[in-house]
Design brief:
Blueprint lengths: L9 H10 L39 H11 L12 E10 L17 E10 L14 E9 L2 E8 L12 H8 L10 H10 L4 H8 L13 E2 L4 E4 L5 E10 L8 H10 L3 H11 L5 E10 H4 L21 E10 L4 H6 L12 E2 L4 H18 L94 H10 L2 H14 L5 H14 L1 H14 L1
Antiparallel strand pairs: 1-2, 1-9, 2-3, 3-4, 5-7, 6-7, 6-10, 7-8, 8-9
Pfam families: Catalase, Catalase-rel
Enzyme class: oxidoreductase
GO molecular function: catalase activity
C-alpha cells in the first residue's frame, strides 16, 4: 500500500480504521489447524504406507481441500466483474439548506469505499466489453453507512422492477449455446422501447470507457434530501471525473480485451500505487417537490434525465481514492452495497426501479454471503450496532446471554427513537405520523393499490430524450460511431428482430435508422 496521501490527521485514521478492520496480524510460528492445534506438514499428506492411499482422518488435508473448494462466493448476477478502492469524501460546498445529512455538511470528511463493475459479463469477463459500468459508493458516515449504487450513465434500460430479471436474462448467455446472443438482446430492447435512451448511451462512446478513472458516475435514480426544518427536495447525484472522460473505440476495446482483460482493474490499482489519486467532483441537481407534478418528464422515471438547463448542477465537494484494498476478496467481493442503506437527511422516491432494488440488492447479499453479511468487517458501520437480529449462519458477533432478543422488554437494551421503550405503543391513540425516514411524499396520487404505467408527463415519449441525445449532444463523428456500433452489435439477429431494430432507431431519429440500415446491409 502506498504511503503517498493527500489527507492527514483524523481523515487518515478514520479511513485506515475501515481499511484494516478484520485483518489478521502476521504470524511467524508454525501453521495451525482451524482449531488452533499445530499443523505437522503443509507439504505431505498421510498415506497407508509409502505408496498406499490417503486416509480420510488426515483432517488437515480434508479441511485444506474442502476450504479450497469453497473459497469463492457466488457471483453477483449483474455486476459480477468488479474492482474498487478506498478514499475520502470532502464537502467543500454548502448544501445544508437541502439536507441535514451529516456527511454532506460543509467541511466534513468521510471515509469511503468504491466498487466499479461491468453489468452483463461474468467475473472473468473482459473490462472492455461494450457494457454499462457500475459506479457504487459507500460512505462510512457518523450516522451509519450510506450507499449510492449507480452507473456511469444517468439513466437505465427499464423503469419497472418487474422487467429487471427479464432484461438481465436477455443480456446473459443463451441457454442452448452458452453464448451471448444478439437476437435475445435486440428482441428485448426493441420490445421495451423505454430502453432507447440507455441503449443510445451504450452504443455510443460511453459504452467502452478507457479506464475507471476516466468516466463519470451517476446515482441515476431520483432520491430525496430533507433539511433540518423537515422540508423535502428531490435530488440526483452526478460524479464528474477530474481526469476527464476518455473512451475506447469499438476496435480498440476489442483489441484491449485480448491484451489485458483486467485493464480497468489494473489501471486503477497502479494509479493509486504510484500516488496518482483519481478525484471526482460531487454535484447534485435539486428539484423542489412542487415542481415534480408538472415537470415535462416524469422525474421518477429512471429512463429519463432532468435537463441541466432546468436544474443546474450544484457543487457539493469531491471524493478522492487514495488507498487500494488490503484484500480484494474480503473488501471488494464481499462489500454488500445496498441502496437501502440510507441515513437521516436522505430518503427514497417513487422511482419504481429504486423501490425494487431496495429488496433485491440486500436479498442477493443474503444469498451470496449469508444472513449476517453486515457483520463482515467491510460492511460494519463505524459505530456499534444495537439490533434485535440474532443467530443465523456465520454469526460471529453475538449478544451477552442476558441480552433480550425481543422488544418491548424489561431491560435497557433500547428501542426505536420514536418508541417509548416500555410498551409496544399499539394503543389506538398512538400515531407516529408520516414515515419521514423513508421519504416525504407530498402527493402519492392516492393510497389505493393499482397496477399500471407511470403517470405520463408532457414530453414522456420513450424516444424523446434519446433523440435529443443523438441530435443535440453528439457531434457528427460520435453519431457515425454510434451507428457503426449499433450495426455491429446487431450481427446475429433474426430477420424479424432486424426489422424491429430499424423501427427502434428510426423512432429515435430517422437519419439514425437509415444509417444503421445501410451499415448493417454491408456487414450481414
Amino acid at each position: 500500500m502506498t504511503d503517498k496521501r493527500e489527507e492527514t490527521g483524523n481523515s487518515v485514521s478514520r479511513v485506515d480504521e475501515v481499511l484494516y478492520r478484520g485483518i489478521v496480524k502476521p504470524q511467524t510460528s508454525s501453521t495451525n489447524l482451524h482449531n488452533g492445534a499445530p499443523v505437522p506438514s503443509e507439504n505431505h499428506s498421510v498415506t497407508v504406507g509409502q505408496q498406499g492411499p490417503n486416509i480420510l482422518s488426515d483432517v488437515h488435508l480434508v479441511e485444506k481441500l474442502a476450504h479450497f473448494n469453497r473459497e469463492m462466493v457466488p457471483d453477483r448476477i449483474p455486476h459480477a466483474k468488479g474492482h474498487g478502492a478506498f478514499g475520502e469524501l470532502h464537502i467543500t460546498g454548502d448544501v445544508s439548506r437541502y439536507t441535514k445529512a451529516k456527511l454532506f455538511q460543509p467541511g466534513t470528511v468521510t471515509p469511503m469505499v468504491t466498487r466499479f463493475s461491468t453489468v452483463a459479463g461474468e467475473s472473468g469477463s473482459p473490462d472492455t466489453w461494450r457494457d454499462v459500468h457500475g459506479f457504487a459508493l459507500r460512505f462510512y458516515s457518523e450516522d451509519g453507512n450510506y450507499d449510492i449504487v449507480g452507473n456511469n450513465t444517468p439513466v437505465f434500460f427499464v423503469r419497472d422492477p418487474m422487467k429487471f430479471p427479464d432484461f438481465i436474462h436477455s443480456q446473459k448467455r443463451n441457454g442452448a449455446t452458452g453464448l451471448r446472443n444478439a437476437d435475445m438482446q435486440w428482441d428485448f430492447w426493441t420490445r421495451a422501447p423505454e430502453s432507447a435512451h440507455q441503449v443510445t448511451y451504450l452504443m455510443g462512446d460511453r459504452g467502452t470507457p478507457k479506464t475507471t478513472r476516466h468516466q463519470n458516475g451517476y446515482g441515476s435514480h431520483t432520491f430525496q434530501w430533507i433539511n433540518e426544518a423537515g422540508e423535502p427536495f428531490w435530488v440526483k447525484y452526478h460524479f464528474i471525473s477530474r481526469q476527464g472522460v476518455a473512451n475506447f473505440t469499438a476496435s480498440e476495446a476489442e483489441l484491449t480485451a485480448g491484451r489485458n482483460a483486467d485493464c480497468h482493474r489494473e489501471d486503477l490499482y497502479r494509479a493509486i500505487e504510484r500516488g496518482d489519486f483519481p478525484i471526482w467532483d460531487v454535484k447534485v441537481q435539486i428539484m423542489p417537490v412542487g415542481d415534480a407534478e408538472n415537470y415535462r418528464f416524469n422525474p421518477f422515471d429512471v429512463t429519463k434525465t432532468w435537463s441541466k438547463k432546468d436544474y443546474p448542477r450544484i457543487d457539493v465537494g469531491h471524493f478522492i481514492l487514495n488507498r487500494n484494498p488490503v484484500n480484494y476478496h474480503a473488501q471488494i467481493e464481499q462489500v454488500a452495497l445496498n441502496p437501502g442503506n440510507i441515513v437521516p437527511g436522505i430518503g427514497f422516491s417513487p422511482d419504481r426501479m429504486l423501490q425494487g432494488r431496495l429488496f433485491a440488492y440486500a436479498d442477493q447479499q443474503r444469498y451470496r454471503i449469508g444472513p449476517n453479511f453486515n457483520q463482515l468487517p467491510i460492511n460494519q458501520p463505524l459505530h456499534p450496532v444495537n439490533t434485535y437480529s440474532h443467530q443465523g449462519s456465520m454469526a460471529y458477533q453475538f449478544n451477552e446471554a442476558k441480552a433480550p432478543t425481543y422488544s418491548p422488554n424489561r431491560f435497557d437494551k433500547g428501542a426505536g427513537y420514536l418508541d417509548d421503550g416500555e410498551t409496544s405503543s399499539s394503543g389506538t391513540d398512538i400515531d407516529y405520523g408520516e414515515a419521514r425516514d423513508v421519504y416525504v411524499s407530498p402527493d402519492p396520487h392516492g393510497a389505493n393499490l393499482r397496477r399500471g404505467a407511470y403517470v405520463k408527463h408532457a414530453e414522456d415519449g420513450d424516444f424523446v430524450q434519446p433523440g435529443i441525445l443523438y441530435r443535440e449532444v453528439l457531434n457528427d463523428d460520435e453519431r457515425e460511431r454510434l451507428a457503426d456500433n449499433i450495426s455491429s452489435a446487431m450481427i446475429g439477429v433474426s430477420e424479424s428482430v432486424e426489422e424491429r431494430c430499424y423501427w427502434y432507431w428510426s423512432s429515435v431519429d430517422e437519419n439514425l435508422g437509415a444509417r444503421v440500415k445501410g451499415l448493417f446491409a454491408q456487414k450481414k
